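Bench notes, afternoon.
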Amino acid sequence: MRIALGTIPFGTTLDEKTSFAILDRFAERGGTIIDTSNNYPFWIEGATGDESEITIGRWLATRRNRDRMTISTKCGARPTVPGDRTMGSAEGLSAPVIRAAVEGSLRRLGVEHVDVYWAHIEDRSVPLEETVAVLDELVQAGLAREIGASNHATWRLERARSLATARGCTRYTHLQLRHSYLRPRPGVRLPESGHVQVGEETLDYVRSEDDLTLWVYTSLLNGAYAGKPLPEHYDHPGTTRRLAVLDEVTAELGATRNQVVLAWLQTQGIVPIVGVSSIAQLDELLTEVKLDDESAARLDAPA
């Protein structure tokens, strides 16, 4: 099972007891990938951005299962001004910032290394050479096993990977962007300013690269497949056509929309990141649905 557990609310809107229960069930059901960041969830009043990592760290320490878990965390988007809820003072991706950020994450998580370490958002004020070099430094020092780029333009990802190859440095081998079965209207500006939406060029690039894995957040559109209203920017004819096929396949399989969407993503080698607030929600999402080639092709067909 290649599903990552998103942990944004852990330690804040979900208390430690509830967070531990969700993490326990995730592990019991065979889940191994936990995705967090050094700034989750700074935008909630009273939060610092430490809460998610600290909660995961306490869980790892009490369950003593670090060796069975893939820990993914990020740097670059943590505000440097107390009380800033906008990322306007984001720390960025300079060498000194990244060195300090990884040490902070390791301390909060209570681990000696992270399995995937992400540049959370772009920082075009810092030369790519500097960011590439310091991320390689972390890998060489054993503080990160692999590195990834989150919310980066495809051309910037390619440039960074090419630069790393030319300099003998560790390449980005993971990419994290926003993506789901339904897609917003072409050209629309998402209200979540930090989000970068997967496009056809990105998918083509990922498919062409043997060493690059795509992770996707907002994979279930914050409950829209389960009945919550779709955001306005998904209101277009393509959504209507895709939902019709999704409902056909869902009925044929006796599954839920969420389960089929996750299966569809995984058939493409994509790692969906899912967030839940209850055990019942988690159990639904971890119930695997197998898509045959014909069903997958039908889901792919509508524009």
